[in-house]
Design goal:
heterodimer, A: mainly alpha, globular, B: 524 residues, mainly alpha, two-stranded antiparallel sheet
Chain lengths: 501, 524
């Protein structure tokens, strides 16, 4: 069952290579929808109190002790759903607009979905590392082939104020940054398996390694090898150096899923691997990680407030949001961790429509720069309303699911130390500034020359409205997620709590 | 006085016999113009028979020729890798200027001679066969490097390789002499026994200097830093099919003897040499990867990358465990696949672009000729150790062996080296997929792909030194090279192998473990 979820996207991507070019997009849409159906099927059969479910465990490389082992629990199920949901609008949006070399484009996009789902479902440490590394490869091609140089001469759309970015340097920076982390993680993962085996048979099964336990001294360095990979991926301040260039160069539909889902794999890795496997080290370095997390919140919010490129506003707001999520996880209590899981889903659901809206704004104004635009709401009330909902969710207005997520996180932080909660809550205030500024400068004010206030086309509306509807529904009943995930999430942080006592 | 001739195990010797027969046939064929044309077919037939004999002797574990040779899993596995790379070299050489100018059959005879040296080297268990095998490997290679008679660089590379290679051989020979002095034996097992029996021989400076000199001599052959300086020049200057053969087969044979000599003969000294080899491996990883960053010539880049990759593999020997040997052999097999895919594409592009191997000749290939771009892309991703390729599993295997034996710092070096290597491997991928083709505008609207290639070739030749500028009229230029099955097949099969063993690695793990098992008597 879980295998079919993982491999269906890739299968349809490969089918797309065989059919005539103009059908490739619709094959991809079909594949993504089937994947969503399969994941809903898993949700239907999911038991919130059942622990690890739908387990698959096959010897993959017996010579090395690596298993093809999958499973799903309360932490991963909503991230899997987020992934399968988020890919559909991105693919549909590309299908409506059309792309160059469509077969390859959708193959890469769907390969990205396959590897991301693999990372969320893997229960073997090495399989997790493998999918984690694999994720970056299709996105390297997506950003590199379909992205473009930005900010150069004669590129008004690409925010020349932010300097020139070439696709080649941006993608190289991205892949080098992320792989620095994941290669160290590979060494750390192998070391964890070898050390925990202590001369016995080596296995990479996460559950077995957790059960065997790691000695305190090894935990400390292995912790940082994993943390490096996850913090770069998120990205967290100060490891976000690759993010601005990559975000500016990337094609928007691919960037939407990248920002919505791939960044969550880092946070998920903390919950799935780091906390249960290295509880002593997690406790020891709690303050360090909380400083980084709170630093990300402040820095990300401040940068989002000063940047004028819409992509960078959203990119830095992601840095801040991931800071919240990390802080929630490292509060080591159920409130913080549940808030973190809820917020991972919320942020992912909001970012996808946000990036697609940026693309639509660029189509209407010919620019992604906040300065020269405005007034788009004039003849496009529906478009403006959708953007307003997305904005409100981003700034976590009370009654949105984001508000509840952030509330849980702050509550969790408060239990650690009131100071953390107070500093972090300044991020909530800053979010209101940058999100409202983004909305006002695009939708209100007079319409500049050359810009065209145009209502959503029906097809675009069909792409955006379901996403926004999910955001709204979740605002009314966030308990759907919290209830199903709390048992699994609690067990993750409980390990550390035990140690900390 | 009676003399007992050693008993001949013809089954065990069959690979060597088959290859020698092939060599003799090829030398004779050079005389007859009619047969000469079938040189490549004859060579491939000889290699197929040799490979068949090796597979037939898969489970062999026998001493041959009074213990001068030993046919076991290690020998069979690494000989097979060498034979496969030689077969690829034969295919890639069809229509190559070097092969034609050196008189087809002679060229193939040289190649076969070198291969014979490799097969002997993988089986050598005595200092004599060790040295004979190594020289038989090297001397034909010196000549092969210089076979592109009209290119100054080719002749230069042949001479350079001859001089440096001779220095390496001489150093090695000195080292062997010292070890003989310390142990009083030439057989590997006898050396180990002699060193242990001799009073204080394990820490004697004579022995240790000998060990160091053998390591240096072998490091020259498999281009381990700091003894790698010849590699980029020779790789670039030599005809590309020869470079491909050198890059993979020499490493297979060189590592075979490195494993056998250090783990069997010098096994008792492991505590003395493991740190030394670890330092060499770390240095190779750094020097190779940093050196490759600045290269614009593909062959030079692959040369430096080979230095770094040799460093990764040497780390497998450092552990002196069976897991380390398994990991090394696995990595070597993956390395053969990735390099064959890369070099096959370089050969094709060279013939299409007036024999330039600059990275810029690859620009826009992803759009125009995906069939060429994909093998090179996968090769680069595999060399960089990204999943889902055999390169990733190979690195995983090596790191696991290292961590398991408390060499975590060396494992971290491999990870750091891999990060640096992304800088140059991905430059190739970016050139293939992310930049427009050179001289795109010059292509007429109705231009077929081959016209485009010819146009690109015309532009390239303008920037070349005068002695090659006549490349437009070069009889060996071949705009249709990307449609030749004998060039395309190695690239595509090697790419498929690099991918297949990345997704289903177990068969290759078994293959590698077969080699490691042969040494189970000597190492844990």
């Amino acid at each position: 069952m879980l295998s079919s979820i993982i491999w269906t996207p890739l299968l349809f991507g490969l089918i797309g290579l065989l059919v005539p070019k103009r059908f490739a997009a619709w094959v991809a849409v079909f594949g993504a929808v089937i994947t969503l159906g399969l994941s809903i099927g898993v949700l239907a059969g999911f038991d919130p109190d059942g622990g690890m479910q739908f387990v698959t465990d096959v010897n993959w490389i017996p010579g090395l002790g690596v298993d093809y082992s999958l499973g799903i629990d309360g932490v991963s199920i909503f991230l899997v759903l987020l992934t399968t949901v988020a890919w559909i609008p991105a693919i549909c949006f590309s299908a409506i607009r059309g792309t160059e070399r469509p077969a390859l484009y959708y193959l890469m996009l769907l390969a990205g979905e396959t590897s991301t789902l693999g990372a969320f479902l893997a229960q073997d440490l090495l399989l997790f590392v493998l999918f984690f590394d694999l994720m970056i490869v299709p996105f390297y091609f997506l950003f590199g082939i379909w992205g473009r140089d930005r900010g150069g001469e004669g590129d008004p759309e690409g925010s020349p104020g932010n300097g020139l970015v070439t696709v080649q340097s941006a993608t190289l920076k991205m892949i080098v940054f992320t792989l620095i982390g994941s290669l160290l993680m590979l060494v750390g993962a192998i070391a964890a398996a070898v050390i925990s085996a202590d001369g016995g048979t080596i296995t990479f099964s996460i559950q077995t390694i957790v059960a065997r336990g790691l000695p305190g001294g090894s935990q400390n360095w292995i912790f940082w090898f994993f943390a490096a990979a996850f913090l770069v991926k998120m990205p967290a301040f100060p490891l976000h150096g690759w993010m601005p260039d990559a975000y500016r160069a990337a094609p928007l539909p691919a960037l939407a899923v990248f920002s919505a889902v791939l960044s969550k794999v880092g946070a998920y890795g903390f919950l799935r691997v780091v906390l249960p496997m290295m509880p002593d080290a997690s406790d020891l370095f709690q303050t360090t990680i909380l400083v980084l997390a709170v630093g990300s919140i402040i820095y990300g919010s401040a940068m989002a407030f000063t940047k004028t490129d819409l992509r960078l506003v959203l990119g830095f707001s992601s840095v801040a949001q991931l800071g919240f999520i990390t802080a929630g996880i490292f509060a080591f209590n159920s409130s913080g961790a549940e808030g973190a899981v809820l917020q991972m889903v919320n942020h992912g659901l909001v970012v996808v429509p946000a990036f697609l809206i940026v693309a639509m704004i660029a189509e209407r104004t010919g620019s992604e720069e906040l300065g020269p635009m405005g007034g788009l709401a004039k003849k496009a009330p529906v478009f403006a309303a959708i953007f307003l909902i997305v904005t409100m969710a981003t700034l976590a207005i009370p009654a949105s699911a984001n508000f509840i997520g952030e509330f849980y996180i702050l509550n969790g932080l408060f239990q650690v130390d009131a100071a953390w909660a107070i500093i972090a809550s300044s991020g909530v205030a800053l979010a209101a500034f940058y999100a409202l500024r983004m909305y006002q400068l695009t939708m209100h004010n007079p319409l500049p020359d050359g810009a065209d206030s145009r209502e959503l086309s029906l097809r675009d509306a069909l792409v955006l409205i379901p996403m926004v509807a999910i955001v709204v529904v979740l605002a009314f009943c966030p308990q759907l997620i919290v209830h199903s995930s709390e048992q699994a999430v609690d067990s993750s942080v409980a390990v550390v709590r035990e140690v900390a006592k | 006085m009676s003399f007992d001739a050693p008993t001949m195990d013809y089954a065990g010797l069959s690979p060597i016999i088959a290859l020698t027969t092939g060599l003799v046939v090829l030398v004779l064929a050079a005389v007859f113009d009619r047969i000469k044309r079938f040189g490549p077919a004859l060579a491939l037939l000889a290699y197929a028979v040799t490979a068949g004999c090796l597979i037939w002797q898969w489970d062999a574990d026998v001493d041959l020729v009074s213990g001068a040779l030993r046919l076991d899993g290690l020998a069979v596995v690494l000989s097979l890798l060498a034979v496969v790379s030689a077969a690829v070299a034969v295919l890639l050489a069809i229509g190559d200027p070097s092969e034609t100018q050196a008189g087809r059959s002679d060229w193939l005879a040289l190649l076969t001679g070198s291969l014979l040296g490799m097969v002997i080297l993988t089986q050598a268990t005595s200092m004599l066969t060790f040295f004979v095998g190594l020289e038989l490997l090297s001397i034909p290679l010196y000549a092969l490097c210089g076979t592109n008679l009209r290119r100054r660089e080719s002749l230069e590379s042949g001479l350079k390789y001859l001089i440096v290679g001779s220095v390496g051989s001489a150093t090695l020979l000195y080292g062997l002499a010292m070890i003989y002095g310390a142990s009083g034996a030439t057989g590997f097992q006898e050396i180990a026994d002699g060193l242990q029996a001799g009073d204080g021989m394990l820490t004697d400076s004579l022995t240790l200097v000998g060990v160091g000199m053998v390591a240096v001599g072998l490091a020259f052959k498999i281009s381990i830093a700091p003894f790698h300086q010849w590699t980029p020049d020779v790789y670039q200057g030599a005809p590309t099919p020869v470079t491909a053969f050198m890059a993979v087969a020499t490493k297979a044979a060189g590592f075979a003897i490195f494993i056998r000599f250090f783990l069997v003969a010098l096994g008792p000294l492991v505590d003395q040499w493991d740190v030394m080899l670890a330092a060499l491996a770390a240095l190779s990883i750094v020097v190779g990867n940093v050196g490759a960053l600045a290269q614009t010539s593909l062959k030079r880049m692959l040369g430096y990358s080979g230095v770094a990759q040799a460093g990764y593999m040497l780390a497998g020997i450092v552990t002196a465990t069976q897991a380390g040997v398994d990991a090394l052999v696995f990595y070597l097999a993956a390395y053969v696949a990735m390099n064959v895919a890369a070099f096959a594409v370089v050969v094709i592009r060279e013939r299409q672009s007036g024999f330039s191997d600059d990275i810029s000749t690859l620009r826009g290939l992803g759009r125009e000729k995906p069939l060429l771009a994909w093998p090179l892309t996968i090769a680069m991703l595999a060399l960089a150790g990204l999943p889902p390729t055999a390169g990733f599993i190979g690195k995983l295997y090596l790191i696991q062996a290292l961590v398991d034996d408390d060499w975590t710092w060396l494992a971290v070096m491999i990870a750091i080296g891999t990060m640096i290597s992304l800088g140059y491997y991905l430059r190739v991928v970016a050139a293939l997929w992310m930049s427009p083709a050179e001289g795109d505008e010059a292509v007429p609207a109705d231009g077929t792909p081959s016209d485009a290639a010819a146009a690109a070739a015309g532009i390239d030749t303008a920037s070349l030194p005068p002695q090659i500028a006549g490349a437009q009229a070069d009889p060996f230029a071949d705009p249709q090279a990307d449609r030749r099955w004998y060039l395309l097949a190695p690239a595509i099969i090697a790419m498929a192998a690099a991918l297949f063993f990345g997704i289903i690695p177990q068969p290759l793990v078994d293959f590698a473990q077969h080699a490691g098992d042969a040494l189970s008597v000597w190492i844990s």
